[in-house]
Amino acid sequence: MQKKLKFRHEMKYYVNYHQYHLIRHRLKHFLHQDSHADHKGEYHIRSVYFDDMEDKALQEKQAGVENRNKYRARFYNGDDSVIHFEKKIKRNTFIAKQKAAISRSTLDRLIKGDFTVLQDTTSPLLKEVHYEMKNRLLRPKVIVDYVREAYIAKEGNVRITFDKDLRTGLQKIDPFDKDLYPVKALDEPVYILEVKFDEYIPNYIRDALQLNGLQRQAASKYTICRKFTKKNAWEDQ
Q1: DSSP H helix total and E strand total for the chain
Q2: Which is nearest to 226 in space by CA: 47, 65, 101, 76?
Q3: What's the distance, CA 31 to chain centroid?
Q4: Rounded CA gap, 76 and 118, in Å?
Q5: Adjacent-strand bridge partners of 31
Q6: Which stretch of DSSP H or E encloses residue 46?
Q7: Region class of 92: left (phi > 0), else alpha (psi between -120 and 50), else beta
Q8: To 5 degrees, how large is the angle CA 181–CA 228–CA 69?
Q9: pLDDT at 228
Q10: How far is residue 157's CA from residue 151's CA, in Å, rounded to a whole number?
Q11: Please, which residues bridge with residue 101 across strands?
């Protein structure tokens, strides 16, 4: 049985070098860093985003459609022993995520467009992916690569992240390709600040972030990286 979706608030901002250091300095005093982070408080994320024959996810994002989905396979710190296929769901201003564990060999076959590897799956999400790949020609489109610094608060279930060194794999779609050398997708020093929470943000966190001084952005890492492989004029919008 598929778990009931848990929707959360998600807000994104671009911050410059000075803003990043100022905010993180405040957060370090009263928030915990992610337990998966290294000695620098960071971890590496590499994702392969999938889209269908009409680039539906990309077009809907560009058009500002409020209710939309994105599919991706993701792993951390170069470790291929734990890979998840994810569906990110946006409903108005809320987001939720479904995920299912897959093996390296399964991802290798999906990258090649071989959806038959999922035909006997019991996972509702992977059954959906099988359907989308078979009937909507869902295929890998771009690699999104970056370093994340995360802070967590139990109160309000708040998660604050800085995504740094955003890179794209250009035309390569195999995340394990030895000849993959991702290139920068944003001019430095610009970081993507994401704030996720359930019902509310405690005032002391809101004060530390000073969100009133920041301009909320769409800041889709998928869209940013797809611009490097654009084929149509509308992709510049």
Answers
A1: 6, 11
A2: 47
A3: 22
A4: 23
A5: none
A6: strand 42-51
A7: left
A8: 105
A9: 82
A10: 11
A11: 84
DSSP code for 5: P
Query: All domains of the chain, ordered by start, with CATH?
Result: 8-236 (3.20.100.30)
Residues in the chain: 237
Measured over the CA atoms of residue 37, residue 161, residue 146 and residue 144, the dihedral's sign is positive
pLDDT at position 42, please?
Answer: 94
What's the CA angle centered on 150, arms 148 and 155, to 5 degrees?
Answer: 155
**At which residue do the structure tokens 């995504």 appear?**
163
**pLDDT tens profile 63-103:** 888 899 999 999 999 999 999 999 999 998 899 999 999 99
154, HSE (Cβ side, Cα atoms, 13 Å): 0
First to last CA, the chain: 40
Tokens representing 41? 């408080």
Taken in order 68, 45, 170, 137, is the CA torsion positive or negative?
negative
